[in-house]
Amino acid sequence: GRLGGPRPCTFGRIVGLSPNFSAADNSAPTSSARNRVALFGWPVKQSLSPEMHSAAFEALGLDDWGYELIGVAPEELSAAFDDARREGMVGCNFTIPHKRAALELVDEVELDAAAIGAVNCASRDGARVVGSNTDVDGFVGSAMEAQLDLVDERVVVIGGGGAARAVIAGAIKCGARSIGVAVRDTDEGDEVCEALRRFAMQIGSLVSLETIELRNRVEAADAIRGARLVVNATPVGMDDDEKSPVPADWLDEVGALFDCVYRHDRSKTAFISAGHERGVTTVDGLQMLLHQGVAAFEKWTGREAPIDVMRAVLVG
User: Fold this and answer.
1) Known catalytic residue: 99?
2) Which pLDDT tens digit goes with each residue over 231-254?
């Protein structure tokens, strides 16, 4: 059945809590399931993954499967992961801010995830734990569903973390001609571009990648305007506020907006609202969550994911 309301988690540990988060905020109940899957993040209280995956397990009669949350600060991630692994975890997800650090925790990394430099999913292969990146599937699946044709188009991705790397890889796979990586730290942007150039070469893409410095507002605005697609791959907008990763007037001439984050109450982020106001195609973080979740579910269980059931949970 579905997981109930929050209570302290004993699968792994809730460790390193900040003053702003209680254990209840950052955990979901430990299931008695034999096949246990977890989400490691900081925070994790906003996640809809337990509801989505629990409904999927139930729909397929996988009564001995359960999904739970492990809220863990970055400095305690390794210990929490090792604890959960010892306790029989069969798979997991990693979310903000752990996708880069997860590379060092798993025994093997799939080629795409290694090239991208981020892991958001891990699954068992015998005694070994294999890291992968289903965020790429999440982006590509969402773009296809929204009928976003990115072949020979320009894409701008805001952010330089694990989600941004996966989105860039997805855009490359979708045939984008050029990709701008919009960041405050140009060293970070250059590092991302270099890593994804190597990924592009591996799959035979001739895409051009460039860093966009957000602190240079005039040049950044010019680089964003006219893009076929602008993607928010930062955490901005996840909380219930009106913050947007860039000023709304920078988005006046873009073709579509894609947000990697969502709000727990399913309300629109300010970034997505800006797209609605401009009458352009928008794809919200719930679609990203759905399609990456489908890919992860199939890795863990070896079964075809009940995507309609999972979608219905997220629609609310």
Assistant:
1) yes
2) 999 999 998 778 999 999 999 999
